Amino acid sequence: MQKVTIGFFTVVVALGLRFGSLRPVEPIIQSQTQIERQLQHSRSTQPYKAMEGSKSPSVSNLLKLSGGDLGKGSSPGARARNDARKAITNKPKAAKSKPGGSSFAAAWSSNPSKRSRPAAANRLAQQFQTGPAEGGNGLFGRFSARPTPDPYNPGCAGGPRSITVLSQSKSSEQNSAREITAHDGLKGILTDKSANHLTSKHGHEVGIDDPLPPNPSQKLTAYKQVRTRINNENKEKFGDILEEILEDPNTEPFPDVSMRGIKGHGYYSENYGESGFFVGIHNEGEFTGQIKKAQSVTPEQLQKLRKLKSID
Amino acid sequence: MKPMNPQQHFLKLLKYSNELKKKNKSLKNEDPEVFDVFLDFLVRIERNLHYLEKQEYINLAKDFLDDQITADDFSYSFMAIYGGIGQKLGQMKRAESVELANFLEPSRPELGDLLARIYGSCDSFSLDPEIAMSDEKELKDCAQILLLKLQEE
Asked: A177-202 pLDDT, tens per residue?
């Protein structure tokens, strides 16, 4: 009987403690639900006021508490809502710093330098931090980026005719780079941008007959500018010719040539151009390993190459 | 036997070079020393052909310095004149034009070197700053020097 009494007492004490510890949670859940309702109501009816209403510290704390849980293991929609809430909680500080300004506009601005994230992410954030009205991607990357004008293809009235890659996106260029192995075993990389540049300036010298129409502002002279059209076909052709030149065992190597003061490895072929064609790979500096020269040469340039191991 | 004058020497080498080409051979590979002599003749001719077109270069430099044309246009236009003269020389070589022998003198080494350097600057110019190795200022300097050089010649 004594054992039964002790056992009963233990059970009562344990249950009492358990319920006692749960008691403070109940009001929190209630207040959380209430605030969530208020927030949802104000967001649906007055979005701008909802942001101002977020000054309430309890909402702020609540969102801080719920942020982690919503962010992980929840649906994309829930995560998006959570992101929106985070933006709302960050907003009041920005609004305070710009009195009289639009709180909505202020919500688009952010200060990436104050956030702890990798440098690459910061760079990306800087690109996206402008709002859609400013042509940026916005905080969430939901808006299309302002296209980067293609300098080789300016289009009508100088507007962008085509979009190549975003200025900060280098991966696409790296992916489209072409590696060519010369007959002496040296490898040279023709990046997409170099292919654009070299094809535009020297494509016609290797028989690519696809010039852009003359620029209307161009003055009429005896010698007309030739800008070979930049497209995949012409770039491919140009790359093929460079490959043919570099792989040809009759192509003369210049292992230590100066290209406008930058050391490199040069190759001279008599098969293209009136007095031959030169291809140069940088051996030092920013563009090491890249094909940065691919041009026909005149007797003057050829003599300088042979005598001085130099090309301008 | 009377020694050959430079004009005769050049025309003889031109003929020889073209004969080798017809046989898919090259003077450079067949006889490098003779090729160097021949190349020296060609360099002199090329410089004088450039000088013959000095008004084209002067007009171009003036237009650029007066901001009538962009740096990009200057770069392409300069390369068009320079390359065009190289092409003209090539055509005259193929045709074995005796007229070429009239351009062996004077030598004009400074002009040749200057034009080759400007060509390099123009070739390295790009509107894309990621790959550009020369800029508008460099091209303006080139245009200024070119103008001074051609006006004093």
From this structure: 999 999 999 999 999 999 999 999 99
Q: Does residue A282 belong to the interface with chain B, where contact is any CB pair within 8 Å? A: no
Q: What is the pLDDT of residue B152?
A: 87
- Cis previous bond, B106, omega within 30: yes
Rounded Cα distance between B22 and B20, Å, is: 5
Residue A123 and residue A119: Cα distance in Å, rounded?
6
Alpha carbon A35 to its chain centroid, in Å, reads 39
A106-136 core/surface letters (b: 16 or more CB in 10 A; e: else) = bbbbbeeeeeeeeeeeeebbebbbbbeeeeb
In the CATH hierarchy, which fold is given to the domain comprising A177-311?
Nuclear Transport Factor 2; Chain: A, (3.10.450)
Closest CA to A56 of A68, A44, A64: A64
Closest CB from B73, B115, B126 relative to A215: B73
Token pair for residue A4?
């039964």
Beta bridge partner(s), residue A295: A278
Mind telling me how many Å the CA of A109 is from chain B's nearest CA? 28
Report helix angle B54-65 to B32-52, nearest 10: 60
Per-residue pLDDT tens for B21-69? Answer: 999 999 999 999 999 999 999 999 999 999 999 999 999 999 999 999 9
Q: What is the pLDDT of residues B95-120, one digit of tens each?
A: 999 999 999 999 999 999 999 999 99
DSSP assignment, residue A228? B
A311 Rama class: left (phi>0) / alpha (psi -120 to 50) / beta: beta
- Residue spans per domain, chain B: 6-152
What residue ranges do the domains of chain A occupy?
2-109, 177-311
**What is the C-alpha to C-alpha distance for residues B42 and B11, in angstroms, rounded to an integer?**
11
ipTM, two decimals, is 0.97
Cβ distance A225 to B76 less than 8 Å, yes or no, reads: yes
Tally of CA atoms within 13 A in the half-sphere of A298 that contains its CB:
29
**A9 CB-contact burial (10 Å; exposed 0-12 / middle 13-18 / buried 19+):** exposed
Q: What is the SS3 assignment for A58?
A: helix
Cα A39 to Cα A30, A64, A88, distances in angstroms:
14, 15, 11
Search chain A and give the residue with CA nearest B41.
A299
